[in-house]
Amino acid sequence: MNKGPRLIGKKLEGVRKERVKHLTVAEKILANHLIEDGLIPGKPLALRIDQTLTQDATGTMAWLQFEALGLPRVRTKLSVSYVDHNTLQSGFENADDHAFLQSMAVKYGAIFSRPGNGICHQVHLESFGQPGATLLGSDSHTPTAGGLGMLAIGAGGLDVAAAMAGEPFHLTCPEILRIHLTGRLRRGVTAKDIILEVLRRLTVKGGVGKILEYAGPGVSTLSIPERATITNMGAETGATTSLFPADEVTRTFLVYQGRGKSFRLLKADTKAAYSGGEISLNLSQLVPLAAKPHSPDAVVPVSRLRGIKPGQVVIGSCTNSSLADMASAAGILAGRSIHPSVSLVITPGSSQVLEAMTRNGILAALLRAGARVMEPACGACIGMGQAPASGAVSLRTFNRNFKGRSGTPDAGIYLVSPETAAAAALQGKVIDPRRIKQRRKFPLPRKAERSSSLVVFPRSSRKKVDIIRGPNIRPLPEFKPLPEEDRGRVLIKLGDNVTTDDIMPAGAKILPLRSNIPAIAEFVFSGLYPDFSCRARSRQGGYIVGGENYGQGSSREHAALAPKYLGVRAVLAKSFARIHQANLINFGILPLVFRQAQDYDRIKSGQEIFLPKIKQCLSSGKNLLVRNVSTGEEWEMQCVLSPRQTEIMLAGGMLNYLKN
Ligand code: MIC
Ligand code: SF4
Question: Which residues form ligand 2's pocket by a CB distance below 6 Å?
Fold first, then answer.
């Protein structure tokens, strides 16, 4: 394996002189934003954050947390608060959240993107992303902006609140994996197939601890929306982020968006070394791919699914909702009608995309073909409407197909490109989209229309702003510092790759409770174990046991905060997903890692566990002793914390730590 720079010294000056000719794109941005510590893969890193992004489902908590820090204004160069997840207003809750978030943005100097303006990642790409800058977002698909050459990282709401307060973002320094692209995509093969191929090779945990940096001659053949599809869904590998260089294609996109001034050329140095190794991918050899239910890495060629009959096809989500995506679907569907057994749902990514679709005939072509067109929002991707029929197959251009996420527990969700989706909608069965030869070409505008009617910019005057706090906005729960020792029952024992959707399901019924922790806590693990919250309450909390990659998927801190509210004090797992592990620490839940597989086998659900000398072990960096009181067995577990994380744990969570 190609070992990259082990150390970029503590002093940035030293870095610049010594290594300036041999840096990767990611290293260049990291080096420009380092606050302290060196760039040593696996070691702690503190980064200056230029921009933040919050969305409504994670944002209400993030903004409550920011408010609790008592600052008069955000301290970033730019912070945007989006409303895109909870837009289905079937009760007062979501509307309450929207009003709260708008008043918070006005009061604290953030830009507010109103419901209907679009999905945060698509809008951020169009309107705010900047090559070479850093972006921290309370959504796991924040790396979408990496398509523009921005170092964009997903995190829990509390980390984003801290960044809005001007605090650095702390993370473990990732390795950099180079993905070397050669060749050019053939007709009918798309950027979605590139990222599905990356997922097939890396799996849902192959990116953990890494930045995926794209390079090679294939890069210049990809447009920005295509690059953004790839960096968006790189999140499914568990990667810290994904990143493209900023080149002439980037400049053209920014000029198209009327933001040419934001451009800055950014490329890796020829002799740059990649600490995480290299993968080569010849775009010319790719074929249309699909991820089968229920994991984004269950990837097979579309040709192997031939004949499967979907009841539903959905084109949209932050992965594939650009104008080009809409145009390619319309190209297949124009002048034709969808199959009578298919419901076709289209969700454009932003109001800019939707407006352009109305101008150049795409919208008319899709409507005439039989599409149901939704407002620009997350929608079906997060189970906010459009749940498929019982046992149905749904083909979606999304990034996640976890069981039950669609709102229908026994539906089978396949993740595909817009081309594959449109072809299936037409035929009523899965076919290789390359078989559709006749396509209509829609002219794309030379310049994007940038309406700002749905964007509220901060006021310059300091007029008093009242925060609108409807009954759905509940105060933040408070938590006590860590105890010296702890005893409790194992509430649940789980296998590998447990998702945050498993822990804290979303969907139209539960999402509106994101601002109300006592209410949402009732739904922890409700999809898999409906009695979990009762069990946790009756046992005054306890422990969760998990396998590998516990907490993969979303950045939702509710997957830590709600279990914490139910009294969960430690999660014992074989390994953790990055964002979830940080969220556990932020809310004072111990993330304990099994040192050997057989220790996992020593625990059963319901058994009693004792953890002695917790504080002492954490403070001295020692392993924690775990005693299974029910069997008398003892073993040690790791709790790998940076010195700062140790202080956060001891304080009982990040908010206590920051307030102190
Ligand atoms: C998701 O795609 O799972 C979400 C919903 O966007 C989450 C954020 C959330 O749970 O609010 C994410 O990706 O972080
Ligand atoms: Fe929204 Fe889906 Fe993207 Fe999450 S993955 S931000 S729910 S569109």
Answer: 85, 119, 139, 141, 317-318, 378, 381-382, 399
Give me the domain span that covers residue 387.
Answer: 289-435
**Which of 285, 308, 338 is the endpoint of a domain?**
285
Give the C-alpha distances (Å, rounded to integers) separating 160 from 60, 88, 583: 12, 25, 11
Q: Is 33 a catalytic residue?
A: no
Q: How far is the CA of 507 from the centre of ligand 1 (A)?
A: 11
Burial category of 19 from C-beta neighbours within 10 Å (exposed 0-12, middle 13-18, buried 19 and up): buried
Q: Give per-residue pLDDT as tens, 62-85.
A: 999 999 999 999 999 999 999 999
Q: What is the pLDDT of residues 201-214, one digit of tens each?
A: 999 999 999 999 99
For ligand 1, whether the C-beta of 405 sits within 6 Å is: no
What order of strands is seen across the sheet that includes strand 278-282?
241-243, 210-215, 175-182, 278-282
For the domain that residue 423 is a member of, what is the CATH number? Answer: 3.30.499.10
pTM above 0.90, yes or no: yes
Q: Which residue out of 19, 33, 85, 558 is catalytically annotated?
A: 85
Task: Tell me what the mean pLDDT of segment 572-601 comes to.
Answer: 97
Lowest-confidence range among 6-15, 145-154, 255-264? 6-15
The pLDDT of residue 462: 67
Please indicate whether residue 400 is annotated as part of the active site.
Answer: yes
